[in-house]
Amino acid sequence: MDKFENVTAIKKANIYFEGKVTSRTILFNDGTKKTLGIILPGQYEFGTGDKEIMEVLTGTLNVLFPGSEAWITYEAGQSFEVPANSVFNVSANQVADYCCSYIKE
Q: Domains in the chain, please, with CATH?
C-alpha cells in the first residue's frame, strides 16, 4: 500500500534520540494506528507496548531482537515483527524510512 486514505494525521511529531528518530502518527477509522518515520544513522534501543510490525520503506535497518545475539538486516520492501512488551535494538548506516503498525492483541 503506497498511500493511506480517510485517515487522521497527528501534526505533532514523535521525536526520539535528540531528533535522530522521528515519526508521525496516523489514525484509521477502525481504531488502528501506524507511524511513519525516519531513522538517521546510529544505533537505538526501543521498547514496545503493543506488538509492532515495522516495514522498511527506504534504506536498510539492522535489528537485534529480544533474547538474540545476532543482528538481522532488513532492506527496503521487507518487514519484521517485534513482540509486545519487549525491548529491541535498531541500527542504521544511512537514513531509513519506515512504517510501523501497532497490533493490539
A: 7-103 (2.60.120.10)
